[in-house]
Amino acid sequence: MNTAADDGLKVATARGRWVIAAAVLGSGIATLDATVVGIALPAIGRDYHTGVAALQWVVTGYSLTLAAFLLLGGSLGDRLGRKRIFQFGVIWFAVASAACGVAPDQTTLIVARVIQGIGGALLTPASLAILQSSFAPDERPRAIGAWSALGGVANAAGPLIGGYLIAIGTWRWVFFINLPIAALVITMTARHVPETRDPEATSRTDVRGVVLAVVALAALVYGLIEGPAQGWGRPAVLAALIVAVIAFPAFFVAESRREAPMLPLGLFADRQFSAANAVTFVVYAALGGALFLLPVVLQISAGYRPLTSGLALLPVTVIMLLFSARSGRLAARIGPRLQMSIGPMIVGAGLILLVRAADHGSYATQVLPAAIVFGAGLAVTVAPLTSTAMGAAPPEHAGSASAVNNVVARAAGLLAVAILPVAAGISGPAALHPAHLAHGFRLAVTMAGLFCVIGGLIAAVGIRNPSRARPVPVAERWACPLDGPGLGIREPVNPH
Fold first, then answer.
1. What is the mean pLDDT of residues 306-313?
2. Short-list 275, 143, 133, 217, CA closest to 410
3. What ranges in 169-267 are assigned the alpha helix state H?
4. Alpha carbon 439 to its chain's center
């Protein structure tokens, strides 16, 4: 059943706009929750009287199951229907969000966040796969461009929204805000989104792959977070790391032998797909680690209030809203290699400029320059990166390709949140002392910035420009109904 793909939805039609809006809002709540919680961490820590390790688990508990179940979510969407899995994921996410909002203690909150991540894993790959499979081939890049640009805005707006909600109420509102949005998404999806699936997909679930993925990620993250807190020689920490070392290779071996795997390893035979996901891993690792620490250091070391710490990255939101889709359209004309090479380096420069954010002083001189450079780098990078990864995969594997790209990004951020604070010396009882935290933060953002530079070098070596790029007719450049000239992009012709 792939009727929508055969008929070919158009971005300029009313139904096309509704489908894009549903996909953006649905994936947006998962993306938003991955960032908006960061601004609430100091308030959560004060309420529960807890330290860095517990705060890490509030973030990584969600990221862990999100990353571990993304491949299953993409596979289920291809087999059972992308619309069906998308709706189920949104409902699951909303229920778990409510549980987070009423959590009486840190343990309950972490468990609810773990459950919430599963819902995010179901809806996130389905949202992008709906666009890839529902729109006509020549309309897909424009739809994905809108999804990428507006999704990037949701990601950047997280700290701002979190700060505002905490200022007018409590950190619990960060989770309750998901409920009305989820209700709107369910209504829009039921009325306007067509059902699509891969007609050749098997009906069997890759249970072994799911178990191995969850065990591998959970064991690795547990070992990396609890090692500094408990001691690397503790039996539980050592056992977790050993399990991770065994489970990761076992997962890939199991997937290579399965007839219908959760992770089609054949996707990585395409150089463009592999290179795009390598860049995704490096860049999102740097972002995940740095943005986990930024709201905390702004509030504890620099003396910002939650709302003002959220406003600190407002320029990033504005820049991405104005320029992300234009960046995608430019990449469609000239090829993605230049932007994917330069963009991460600009992001890295912005992260390194954040070394001054830990000091008391003027926002205009200590944070704003970094936010502008950081936002410019994201605007250059995000849309070409997503379009390149999705354009290198066949349409029948849209769900799996979307899941792979998402799981790479989420796993990168997950590992960075576990590793970067430790690498920068932000661990132990003194971790949240203002001076100690500021020193570690400067080291952390410097490392994250250099990591982004590596991402740019990977793109320069691994990404290919298409042998030909079809120019966008002038009339089509101004045809996107969501943002005037800003959201109509064309996908580079796959050279393979």
1. 80
2. 217
3. 173-176, 178-192, 207-230, 235-257
4. 27
For the stretch 64-99, pLDDT in tens is 788 778 778 887 888 888 999 999 999 999 999 999
From 22, 20, 16, 175, select the one nearest 87 (Cα to Cα). Answer: 22
Which residues is 9 bridged to in the sheet? 135
Biggest distance spanned by C-alpha atoms of the chain: 65
Q: What percent of the chain has pLDDT over 70?
A: 86
Phi, psi angles (nearest 5°) of residue 9: -65, 150
* Tokens (6 digits) for 344: 């991460």
Confidence at residue 152, expressed as pLDDT on a 0 to 100 scale = 64
Tracing tokens 């229907």 back to the chain, one arrives at 81
Non-local CB neighbours of 431 within 8 Å, separated by 6+ positions? 51, 52, 421, 437, 440
Rounded (5°) CA angle 151-157-162:
130
Residue 200 binned pLDDT confidence (cut-offs 50, 70, 90)? low
Q: How far apart are CA 216 and CA 221, in angstroms?
A: 9
For 102-139, give the DSSP string: T--SHHHHHHHHHHHHHHHHHHHHHHHHHHHHHB-TTT
CB atoms under 10 Å from CB of 379, counted, come to: 28
Q: 323 is written with which tokens?
A: 């320029």
Characterize 467-484 residue by residue with b for buried, 16 or more Cβ atoms within 10 angstroms of its Cβ, and e for exposed.
eebeebeeebbebbebbe
The pTM is what? 0.71
Contact yes or no for 133/121 (Cβ under 8 A): no
C-beta separation of 359 from 329 below 8 A: no
